[in-house]
Amino acid sequence: MKNTIVIFTLNGCSHCSSLKDRLDEINIPYLDVEITQNEKIWEQVVEQTGEDLIPTVFIKQENSDDGFIYIPGKDFESEDEIVEKIKNHYNEGV
């Protein structure tokens, strides 16, 4: 079992689409949570983090409800940086 990657996205967001394309290219599965279709969950994320930026990435640790939240501009500055973090966490769950 591996860690679960959850990406909070918005339809039409080019940064969101680009990140999902990159993960597809390297065969890392993820759950795409579109924020307008999952408003209650997104409100909880915003409340916990104090941020409402996308794409926000949550990496749920295997066998736990805990994980890591990465917010653009705060926890990563580039797509390359978040892809590396995702790869590292994903592979930890192997």
Outline of the structure:
The protein has 94 residues and is an alpha+beta fold. Helices cover 39% and strands 20% of the residues.
Give a description of the structure:
With 94 residues, this protein is of the alpha+beta class. It has one domain (4-92): Glutaredoxin (3-Layer(aba) Sandwich). The protein has helices at residues 14-25, 39-49, 79-92; strands at residues 4-9, 31-34, 56-60, 67-70. It is globular. The termini are close together. The mean pLDDT is 93.
**What are the secondary-structure elements, in order, as H or E?**
EHEHEEH
Mean pLDDT value: 93
Largest sheet composition: 4 strands, mixed
Helix content: 25-40%
Q: What is the tally of helical segments?
A: 3
> Strand tally, please?
4
Instruction: Tell me the β content.
Output: 15-25%
* Total number of domains: 1
How do the strands of the widest beta sheet line up side by side?
2-1-3-4
